[in-house]
Specification:
109 residues, elongated
């Protein structure tokens, strides 16, 4: 379902708990809601912020150039991954399609 609609795995579950629904998923979501899911429990186990590859790469590139601020900021955000905070939207968003198409990971992240 997620692959078919090209949805981000992490963002999907947080959005589902919030009630954000892609139009193509409306029928599925209505059936899911009939089961009365515990959205608070979903939010306790589905983080808003994860170490997304594009953010890790950005922090590593900056650190290599001598700027540790992006790495420190990323670590700060990831220190409280379940609490949505204003101004941190970029840390919750998946990378661009261009990044995803060109990025290779070797450690399984």
């Amino acid at each position: 379902l997620l692959e078919e609609h090209k949805l981000d795995y992490t963002s999907f579950f947080r959005g589902l708990a919030r009630g954000d629904v892609a139009l193509g998923l409306m029928n599925w979501v209505q059936r899911w809601r009939a089961h009365r899911p515990d959205t608070e429990a979903m939010n306790r186990v589905n983080p808003v912020y994860i170490p997304r590859n594009h953010l890790v790469e950005e922090a590593l590139a900056a650190a290599t150039a001598g700027d540790l601020d992006p790495a420190a900021r990323l670590l700060d955000v990831l220190g409280d991954p379940f609490t949505e905070r204003p101004g941190l939207e970029r840390y919750a968003a998946p990378g661009s399609e261009d990044f995803a198409a060109s990025h290779r990971t070797f450690c399984g992240t």
